[in-house]
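Try this one yourself first.
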């Protein structure tokens, strides 16, 4: 269908300019009011009837002339708390707020897909639902609120994409099962007995207990998890003590747990608790373990991954459709996948020669904007296939 490529080429400047608009005017999770207004204005100008959802989100249906299935396409629209240092004309005008994850591009692509499909309306079989989701970056994420308010009612399948810096522009990455991990968090508060550093026998050294727990937690994945499974336990915070000659009475550990299935997720938390309990009991310390379960893992439906990959092949050639290993990052797209079959892909935006080398969430993060047209084309083609 050469017509699709032509349409997307025709709308490319529009999509790039939209992305730059959103990049210049980023808004934090749950505060995307101007972003919402811009999305509504653009969709309305296409003749659609967008509605507000999940406070700062947008939902709109494009009903084709012919009967068929309903396919949802989702974009997340929020930015990060970070100073933009991309040094481009479209640099953020909002101090301390930056689209350093590429959600500006996701939003622009989805509007571009809508603009493309509106022109194909007469041949369209079924309904395409556009989901502009707020607050992906902030737990508990905006997906649950979207679903609670009916975003998936009548939906047969769902697709989504993330612009992805580790992949070169002109390629996409996909899996046919687990794609992204469940990003869980935990905090361990250890209570011992403080005292003079010269009289350790009169204390219960919370710092030492914390150190032993740190080492022991780092053995869980290597000793308790099937080597064929993937899991991560990492500590990012260890706080204890204020000065050199006082043994501290408390220590705080804070870390993350990543995995791809529910059973393993629970096993990791059980082991964290057992290990912490054993070490605290041996030392005479007590502890409180707090768990914060993040999003479920993103598990792609293999048949829908294949449809995305086929659409990718038509757009970029089969040599540029990469089957990748799952990544340990999290995404609340998983909530949709728990309800309806769907798949998520990464669209490469990296380009060393153009200096586009900074990772996601870096103040100098930027994308090769050619990726936008590729994302629009692949998702448009996949949606058309899924409608049939
Ligand atoms: Ni993101």
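Now uncover the answer:
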């Amino acid at each position: 269908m050469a017509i699709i490529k032509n349409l997307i080429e025709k709308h490319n400047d529009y999509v790039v300019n939209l992305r730059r608009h959103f990049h210049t005017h980023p808004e934090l999770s749950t505060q995307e009011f101007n972003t919402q207004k811009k999305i509504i204005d653009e969709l309305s100008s296409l003749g659609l009837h967008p509605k507000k959802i999940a406070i700062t989100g947008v939902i709109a249906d494009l009903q084709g002339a012919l009967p068929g299935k309903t396919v949802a396409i989702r974009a997340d629209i929020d930015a990060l708390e970070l100073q933009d240092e991309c040094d481009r004309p479209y640099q953020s005008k909002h101090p301390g707020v930056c689209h350093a994850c590429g959600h500006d591009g996701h939003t622009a692509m989805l509007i571009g897909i809508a603009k493309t499909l509106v022109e194909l309306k007469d041949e369209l079989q079924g309904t395409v639902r556009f989901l502009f989701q707020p607050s992906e970056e902030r737990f508990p994420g905006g997906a649950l609120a979207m679903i609670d308010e009916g975003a998936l009612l009548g939906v047969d399948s769902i697709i989504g994409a993330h612009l992805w810096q580790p992949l070169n522009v002109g390629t996409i990455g996909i899996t046919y099962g687990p794609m992204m991990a469940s990003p869980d968090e935990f905090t361990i508060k250890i209570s011992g007995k403080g005292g003079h550093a010269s009289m350790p026998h009169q204390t219960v050294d919370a710092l030492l207990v914390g150190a032993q727990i740190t080492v022991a937690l780092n053995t869980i994945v290597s000793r308790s998890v099937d080597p064929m499974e993937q899991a991560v336990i990492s500590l990012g915070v260890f706080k204890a003590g204020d000065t050199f000659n006082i043994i501290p009475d408390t220590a705080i550990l804070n870390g993350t747990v990543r995995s791809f299935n529910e059973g393993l997720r629970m096993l990791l938390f059980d082991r964290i608790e057992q290990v912490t309990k054993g070490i605290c009991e041996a030392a005479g310390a007590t502890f409180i373990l707090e768990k914060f379960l993040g999003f479920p893992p993103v598990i792609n439906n293999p048949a829908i991954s294949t449809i995305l990959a086929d659409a990718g092949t038509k757009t970029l050639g089969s040599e540029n459709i990469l089957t990748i290993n799952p990544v340990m990052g999290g995404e609340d797209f998983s909530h949709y996948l728990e309800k309806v079959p769907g798949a998520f892909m990464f669209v490469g935006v990296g380009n060393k020669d153009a200096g586009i080398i900074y990772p996601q969430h870096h103040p100098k993060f930027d994308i090769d904007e050619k990726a936008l047209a590729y994302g629009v084309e692949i998702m448009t083609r996949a949606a058309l296939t899924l409608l049939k």
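Discussion: Residues 2-179+297-387 form a domain with the Aminopeptidase fold (CATH 3.40.630.10). The first strand starts at residue 51 and ends at 53.
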